[in-house]
Amino acid sequence: MKKSIKLAAAAVLTVAMLSACSDSSTNKDTTNNTNTQTENQADNTNETTSQTSDVPAAEAPVFENVSVHDPSVIKVDDTFYIFGSHLAAAKSTDLMKWTLIDSGVADGNVLIPNVTEELKETLDWAESDTLWAPDVIQLADGKFYMYYNACKGDSPRSALGVAVADKPEGPYKDLGIILKSGQWGEISPDGTVYDATVHPNVVDPDVFFDKDGKLWMVYGSYSGGIFIMQMDPKTGMPLPDQGYGKKLLGGNHSRIEGPYMLYSPQTDYYYLFLSYGGLDANGGYNIRAARSKNPDGPFVDSEGQDMIDAMGTPGTLFDDPSYAPYGVKLMGNFTFDSVDGEPTGNPYAIDYGYVSPGHNSAYYDEKTGQYYLIFHTRFPSRGEAHEVRVHQMFMNADGWPVVAPHRYGGETIGKYATSDIVGDYKYVNHGHDITADIVRSSVITLSEDGKVSGAATGTWKLDGDHNAVISIDGVDYKGVFLREYDESMETQVMTFSALSDKGVTIWGSHVALEKK
Fold this sequence. Notes:
By secondary structure, this protein is mainly beta. Helices cover about 5% and strands about 35% of the residues. The protein contains five helices and 30 strands. It has helices spanning about 10-15, 115-120, 120-125, 320-325, 420; strands at about 70-75, 80-85, 90, 100, 135-140, 145-150, 160-165, 175-180, 205-210, 215-220, 225-230, 245-250, 255-265, 270-275, 285-290, 330, 335, 350-365, 370-380, 385-395, 400-405, 425-430, 440, 440-445, 450-455, 460-465, 465-470, 475-485, 490-500, 505-510. Strand 6 and strand 7 form a beta hairpin. The longest helix has 7 residues, at about 120-125. It is globular. It starts with 10 loop residues before the first helix and ends in a 6-residue tail after the last strand. It comes from Paenibacillus terricola.
């Protein structure tokens, strides 16, 4: 189960509420391929001065990909399950090889076999024929509770409810709607007339236990922001007299959504993950984080800024510059471009990266102490096609998460020497903006004397077994070094991921020379 510590105003304004909590391009995800990513080749490559080859994988990991938009994870026994928009779900025992369970809001879906009738009230209220990002949790009675939702799409007219099943794969039976939004001109759950700039769009739920065993639900997308409310751990329903709950951040139609909470026993913080921007390939979706000592906040970013101030300017729509400065940016659009001397036999080796990664969940393994970030992403030159990706995540020296640059391939972090780290790296600075632009890698060199040269200059240091302390152009970054599998180069490479106190993430992936 999700561990008891989730170890884990006008209609013109609402037309643009086409939220990003769901992939609106299709009602049924169909991609379920093994290593099918194909990219168009770039015309130009980077050059390096002193390329150093890395160690080939003794046994390359095997990946089997699925398309589940907005994947929310739960582990049951030895199996990981992810549930996403359009009633899609998949499972894996190793976070690398995924099997699609089902997808599509149509009768016959194994999760809710009679879904059009079972959730008729929800679909009718939302004036929709599909469902958006759900969350599943196991409560003390051993049953699985699915928090489902539907949204009209061009307005925050949404309904959020809960269904229950004896098994994670269903069949789920509806227990009813628990929240509605978008009721223009009518009284909302907090007793005031619904206002989309102040009140939430009731989608994107994440239900979790805190470290003391209390049950909470965090939710929201665009509109009035991200909210949290306390739930009854026995029934899975909201405790009475909360209205919409407590606001954590957002409002005035900020493009912020997909909240997910993870408690870390290592740092004793609750981490609130968020997605900024729009979900499509041109939307600039990116993953952010904030933290608090309490599940209901207040949440702050690495600069100490209170996230309650992360909102749009009143009277504006999607005023990205107002809230872009808030939150630690973990990743956005990027490519690791091939450099001279690297192998190019892999069809997507030259233009490998992500576009609009987001709407993540996260998992902490109590036994191993490993953190995982689970999300969907689009890809360069592939339009709106999307797949699930899993990356390892680590806490840096300041207690902030940093995400490994490559997808999880079964690696564990090790004890490294300077000789393991020196050499040329494909370097990405994720910045702090919300943009559809793709950050293309450049080449830097980490020298044995602790200097950084090339496209950026500074210093680097290996602190302890694997901690990274890197100064680039006068800015200090703290993170980790990690040897992991580079799928595009089909070999093991040294990488680094580090974060500045301004909430900016940098990545490096070692250049891999083709074997002669």
